[in-house]
Amino acid sequence: MIKAALIQFEPQALNPAENFRRMAEAIETEGKEADLIVFPELSNTGYIEPVAAGEQIAARPPHFGQALWEACADLDGEEIQHLSELAAKHRTYLVLGLGLRDPLLRGVMRNASVLIGPQGVAGTYIKVHQWQNEKLYFTKGDRIDTWPGPGCRLGMQICYDIRFPEITRILALQGADVVTNIWASSGIDGAPVADEDLFVHRAYTRAIENGVFFLSCNRVGVQAGHRFYGRSCAVAPNGRVLGILKHDAEDVLRVEIDLQEVSQYRAYTGIWTDRDPALYARYLTTNGPAA
């Protein structure tokens, strides 16, 4: 049984010291029980600005690109080292949504999901599918991998990646039992939420398609006129909702994961034995199906 804690919190824009302090505080609290602690996208930097295409930069200093680079972390830096020490102290795993500086190229940044275990940094996923203005600042990733987690094989993705089912399928093909999706998903502050269960729908779909536990952790708060949706949730391989935060306030979602449900669901449904990759491949070429 894996105990997971999804930390739905509000990062402050361009204030990594305060954000890392709050992340460490959450790890100290949740690490007493949780085997896996998940934080939202860009938890150390806050989200990029303009938040949406055609909007204004509200944060100060106004040159958000340079300020964003300064707010990003080094993978081998003091902040991540400190969180690694906390993971070792509590014998827990962390999934951290972080803005990272490229280790060699000054000014080059990555939107990353970093896996830290009791032995230190275990894996890093760089966001492949970049939403709107993210392309102005971050260099996209070019790898999809899985890593050992707390008694499981763990895959990571970030926000907009969920709209591309290939990502979750590839993670499952690589043996993932648990997939984390970290978000900074928002809408105009004051506008009604079009679908209160949006994140459950998306997590449910990816879970039952692949027979995986799907953990969806979104941030909250207001930045540059956008309210972040929160509504973090966790879904079992058969689509059963393990837990959901039905609001956009700071909170923690705590759930338990029984990995036996992965094999039970896959064996019962036949979603792996009934696949026909050779047939699909005929339609996934640029020229269409073979004659």
Overview in brief:
This protein has helices at about 15-30, 65-70, 80-90, 165-175, 200-210, 260-270, 275-285; strands at about 1-10, 35-40, 95-100, 110-115, 120-125, 145-150, 155-160, 180-185, 185-190, 215-220, 220-225, 225-230, 235, 240-245, 250-255.
What do you see in this structure?
The protein is of the alpha/beta class and about 290 residues long. It has one domain: 4-Layer Sandwich (Nitrilase/N-carbamoyl-D-aminoacid amidohydrolase). About 25% of the residues lie in helices and about 30% in strands. The chain contains seven helices and 15 strands. Strands 5-4-3-2-1-15 form a six-stranded mixed sheet. A hairpin with a 5-residue loop joins strand 13 (about 235) and strand 14. The longest helix has 15 residues, at about 15-30. It starts with a strand and ends in an 8-residue tail after the last helix.
Which terms would index this structure?
single chain, 291 residues, alpha/beta, Nitrilase/N-carbamoyl-D-aminoacid amidohydrolase, 6-stranded mixed β-sheet, 7 helices
